[in-house]
Amino acid sequence: MDGQGQGRQKVRLLDYFRIRPPAVNPDRAIINRFEQNRSMSSSSNSLEKNDIIIIGGASAGLSAALYASRQGLKTVLITKDIGGQALLTDNIENYPAFEHIGGFELMSRLERQARVFGTEFIYEEGTSIVEDSDHQHTKGFIMKTSTNKEYSTLAIILAFGKTPRDLDVPGEQGFKGKGVSYCAVCDGPLFKHKSLAVVGIGDPLLDTALLLKGMASKVYLIQRTNTPVGAKDTIRLLQNEKNVSFIYNSVVKRINGTSKVDSITLIDTKNKSKESELVIDGVFVEMGYIAKTDFVKNLVQLNSNNEIIVDKYCATSKHGIFAAGDVTDVPYKQAVISAAQGSIAALSAYNYLQKLKGKPPIKSDWRTTIKK
């Protein structure tokens, strides 16, 4: 993740048409633009054939949209929200040309550029992709969304990043948004003077506790190990806080409550018959991120981490489908690398479409190198 420090801020888009500003508001004009954009419904006919559909609205997807649109392609970007994990920070210091920039502002600028050049934004979640074939000749793909709408396209760029990993325990799904959270920066202020549990592993667990300790009356760190894991200086700092307690050799069995979270049931990892109940007001889950690629696993090749395998052109094992960003097997998950991959994927997709249409591909998008 780009950016460091306790001042990290994330904006979570609560649904398709609302946005909650972070604790430290960015430029109001940016927020207004996001609210306006998200309230716009798609005007395109879902049966109309598009040149490219991009799935994902963060660094990779937005950069791909910018490059595809600039090449004059009919480009549609499908995403549940804008920004992805970049919204976790308000202080990115390693993005070229910016000494300091917030994740929200950076993603906002990318979104604006893509829209200016003609990208159409559809705020839904992609759920399935099937080949759109006419007898022996493949004519492209059909993209289906969570609202059962279908969109036709000649090429696809998969750029949907990674999503938070669930605890996968009873009660978790039912209490999401009712005491179960995956973002301390977004939801921490809602639990001021409350008792909280943080469940997870390593530095993400410690960082979340570090942030919450200044808001909550009590913070419990639930760990399956018998010693804390992570940065030693952070561990020492937390151990010296009066309102922070480590609970070792424990895992969550169940999240309990009626209309909201009231408690969690813990199991002792050394004595599995021993259970205890911890009364709390909220649970923050920090189990890392996963690539939710199940809906494309029959189309493209994945590695053992369920990441999409790509070549140097960001092409997948399926002709016409490209991928970019954190969802790929390319190492170094950084915003600038995702943006670069998105650009490569878009130019590669353009060349693919040129060949389909019997036209010559571009050989250089900058200038021709002349050999002396």
The level of helicity is 10-25%
Write down the overall mean pLDDT.
83
| Low-confidence segments | 1-43
Question: Any guess at the CATH architecture of the largest domain?
Answer: 3-Layer(bba) Sandwich
Our count of domains comes out at 2
Q: What would you say about this model in short?
A:
With 372 residues, this protein is an alpha/beta fold. Helices cover 22% and strands 24% of the residues. Helix 2 packs parallel to helix 3 (103-116).
Structure notes:
With 372 residues, the chain is α/β, with parallel strands linked by helices. It folds into two domains: 28-162 and 291-356, 3-Layer(bba) Sandwich (FAD/NAD(P)-binding domain); 180-288, FAD/NAD(P)-binding domain (3-Layer(bba) Sandwich). Helices cover 22% and strands 24% of the residues. It is built from seven helices and 17 strands. Strands 1, 2, 3, 4, 5, 6 and 17 form a seven-stranded mixed sheet that branches. Strands 8-15-9-10-11 form a five-stranded parallel sheet, covered by helices on one side. Strand 4 and strand 5 (137-145) form a beta hairpin. The chain is elongated.
Topology:
Elements: H1 28-38, E1 49-55, H2 59-70, E2 75-78, H3 103-116, E3 120-122, E4 126-134, E5 137-145, E6 150-158, E7 163-164, E8 180-181, H4 184-187, E9 195-200, H5 202-212, E10 218-222, H6 232-239, E11 244-247, E12 250-257, E13 261-268, E14 275-279, E15 282-286, E16 289-290, E17 321-323, H7 335-356
Parallel strand pairs: 1-2, 1-6, 2-3, 6-17, 8-15, 9-10, 9-15, 10-11
Antiparallel strand pairs: 4-5, 5-6, 7-16, 12-13, 13-14
